Amino acid sequence: MLLAKEAQACGVQRFVGVGTCAEYTWGSNAPLSEYSSPLAPSTLYGACKDATRRALESFGQETGMSTAWARLGMLYGPGEHPARFVASLAHAFATGQRARMSSGRVVRDYMHARDVGAAVAALSLSPVEGPVNIASGTALPLVEIAHTMARLAGRQDLLDVGALPERSDDPERIIFETARLNKEVGFRAKTGMEKGFEEMLHFYSCR
Question: Contact 125/90 with Cβ under 8 angstroms?
Fold first, then answer.
């Protein structure tokens, strides 16, 4: 909040914060909506993000500063930590290692980091205020993502579905309403799934 206050004092008229889908209450199969989905974060990270959003909105109302909140969903991209799901698969396929995973039945919406950055920029340049989900709007079971990456790499032999246990605390579906992003901000993801996964495979094969 100190940054927003200093910005406003310097004459900045619009401030966009970056939040997380961890602000939502997970567990429902319904798409997560900025308007209707409950906010009860189960992690300290999510709680801190949500508290910052509330403070920013109140500050904007008090001062007249235009504020918005980019609520990021699941993202992936070259250079991310190799323990993350998409990166772990790309690293395994690119280096000839076993790609071990659970059953992959859970459904997730992944968006390429390049599109995430472009979406936040588009939101910043728009007049839209309040929280906006930053997500692709396309959700797939993790096992489908894994099979697609294995096919693109030509290493279906390395995919080991069911080798890891299921996580008991893993929500079955994390999907997002993207009407605000698509219609109000006027932004849609431009990086197709296969193109994004090919970039990931190329990144790890060159390291």
Answer: no
CB 15 within 8 A of CB 57: no
Task: Report the alpha-carbon distance of residue 132 to residue 15 in Å, rounded.
Answer: 14
Count Cβ atoms within 10 A of the Cβ of residue 29 and give its class: 0-12 exposed, 13-18 middle, 19 or more buried. Answer: exposed
The single residue listed with the structure tokens 């906010």 is 39
Show the low-confidence residues of the chain (pLDDT under 70): 207
Q: Which residues contact 179 (CB under 8 A, 6 or more apart)?
A: none
Rounded CA gap, 197 and 86, in Å?
A: 8
Does an H or E element contain 52, and which? Answer: helix 44-63
CA nearest neighbour of 135 among 183, 200, 71, 39: 71
pLDDT, position 207 = 67
In the block, residue with structure tokens 């069911």? 162
Alpha-carbon distances of 17 from 72, 115, 204, rounded to whole Å: 11, 17, 31
* Radius of gyration of the CA atoms of the chain, in A: 19
Tell me the DSSP string of 184-204.
Answer: II-----S-HHHHHHHHHHHH
pLDDT of residue 195: 96
